[in-house]
Specification:
alpha+beta, 8-stranded antiparallel beta sheet, 3 helices, 16 strands, globular
Length: 278
Amino acid sequence: MKMETSQPLAVGGGGGPVPAHLDISPPPHTKHHHPAPPLSSGCEDHWSWNKNDKSHEVRLYGPKQRIAHFHPNWSNGTAGVRGTRVLNGGRFYWEINVSQRIFGTSMMFGIGTRKARLHVDAFVNMLGEDENSWGLSHKGLLWHGGRHKQYIKPFRENIATTIGLYFDGVSGTLTYFKDNLCLGVAFTGLQDTTEPLYPIVCSTAAKTEMALGVLKRDFQSLQDRCRATILSHLTHEEQIDHLKLPLRIKHFISEGLENFQEDVALSVNNHNINLSHW
């Protein structure tokens, strides 16, 4: 039986033709640093890792269970977890704070349908192994349809990092960021996927950890934007009752306060993480 420890293993498999949905834009070093992350003028999003849709080798904890811990004892395979957010048709940006334990065959960040596997008893690049998922590995490789291409240089091992993913369901693209640096469009043609798409992460390495950080989404309507503006000025849910607004509007505002206090706690937690940089 093979076990994955802190010793890095080489990525296996050949390259082959570039898949149709792998973007062939200019090399990553030509990308520019963005002054602000995508959807900085959007609103806070509310989702987490799905406790009912994960490998048995993933433990969830923290505010709203947004921290995923992989292979808590040792690893003899690949474990993943799917997010609760359906991405199709919208614009979403999320960040994943990766702990300093970066090593092994494959730690991956991406998206996939419900058909994408979340566990296999082997060290593999699970995201992108078939047509049901798209992923970036810490080796700097993009995977889809069982094929890969070089996207960026491999991550530095045992150095904490933050990976941002920007999904544009209108143009059908997925773009990656690393420590606030835009890496360019990675995948295209995603608007043609009719099955629901979800955020997914996976890891082959023991005792690795990925925590959801910034979660943003585009506004769906003017009403949605107005609600977000009101919520940004509130500190307690009870304040909604004192607003001089029709009851129906108050109910609509209350719907946007789902898990309000937990999200406040999460923001504080993410701020502390950024200060300590793990």
